[in-house]
Amino acid sequence: MDMAIPLRATRREWLGLAVLLLPTLLIVMDLTVLHLAVPHLSAELQPSSAQLLWIVDIYGFLIAGSLITMGTLGDRIGRRRLLMIGAAAFGVASVLAAFSPSAELLILSRALLGIAGATLMPSTLALISTMFRDPKQRSVAIGIWISGFSAGSAIGPLVGGVLLEYFWWGSVFLLGVPVMLLLLAVGPRLLPEAHDPAAGRLDLASAGLSLAAVLLVIYGVKHSAQVGLDFTAGLTVFGGLALGIVFVRRQQTLAHPLVDLRLFRLPAFSAALVMYTLGVFVSFGAFLFIAQYLQLVAGLSPVQAGLWSVPGALASIIGSNLAPVLVRRVRPAYVAAGGLALAALGFALMTQIGISSLLLVAIGWVLISLGFGMTFTVSTDLVVGSAPPERAGAASALTETGAELGGALGIAVLGTLGMTIYRSRLAATLPEGVPATSAAAAQDTLGNVVAQVELLPAATGEALLLAARLAFTQGLQLLSLIAAVVMAGLVVLAAVMLRDASGAGHGGDTLEMPHGELAASLEH
Fold it and tell me: Which pLDDT score is estimated for 513?
């Protein structure tokens, strides 16, 4: 039975929000702790290089590929029901992963975790739009929800490190079991049920097309990042795009499409989705290099690097919770643009770093995280608020799918570009006396340089390490410049495309589009 939701959220809804933070924290923690566990599970299960790659990647692949289907499925069968089903499946898959006796079973368990994880994010965000109908409260709730990502990224490595210190590698996967049991216990009491009363049956052909299209694109992008742009990468990306076109055309012919393409006629919806996707694209690509800079250039240990990243996580939490306060007094367009401008400033500072600019990197990271926290809250609120309530699940799924695609593309495109700069600069400044085998290994990754230094005479090794660190820093400088330019472009996009979206502090308007414009856009 559906719960009656008041216009203003009560204590029940705020307690329900705390429940919805549980899967948010867990999914981010699950992503971070696996990387810590890789050396331990590799020693125990002895997977091949291909199997290890699938153990790491299959989870994200299936989350990205299943989000659209799961978001729409929640609109049809009920978002709370789908959340409970997904939570139970996630708990079972976590146990299977923790006690996997072989690499093959671990890959299968991670695949099940990905499918189950795809039910969680769209359901939680869609339920927030149901529980918090007052625009001011919804904006605050979304800011808190986004804070869960930052908190999970900070907590995951710390908790995972402790577990791996005292228990076996599978213990990190058991983190999900008590969390999901708590969600199953209190969720039905605190979370309302919500669905689209006019929803038709789920189109299985569309679900298959969306899954195949997203999987092929992401696989091709990741493949190109690992081995370069070859025939396999080109074929899979082209095939994924072709299936995506077929998917879009099919949606235009269905009475009950998997994705209602009319949502993209809403300027606030489209602009916010672009901001979110490109923001994730830039952040994932840059943060990959920043994390390596802290350890391989600045010479920090993993624990020290984690501690230096805490200020960024805190800044993100502050930004995501500051945005709802600002939109009461300032138009969302200006809040989003201001956040993007802060991120652009942070990246501009990063263009000036050297091999011993730890403090400058930390300051830049804080500005970037603060700006993204503000912008992601506003853009997410606009995506959810612009969509009709019955389509909240589908709109939420598009947001998460954009994030997954943006992240994969950012790592592949910016990561590949950064490594290209690193290799070319190192080749141009390679010290004399470095053997060809050592030079080839050093140009592969910066991590290899550390291993090669121990095999070379002291003076030659130190010269090679210095040259490699300088080359890597130059690669990060270029990525930061590209990111600053992209952020500056998004500042203009936000100011122009979101200018008609108004906050709660402007004449009583909401963060949503005017209802007349919304209805007209969706009727034609």
Answer: 41
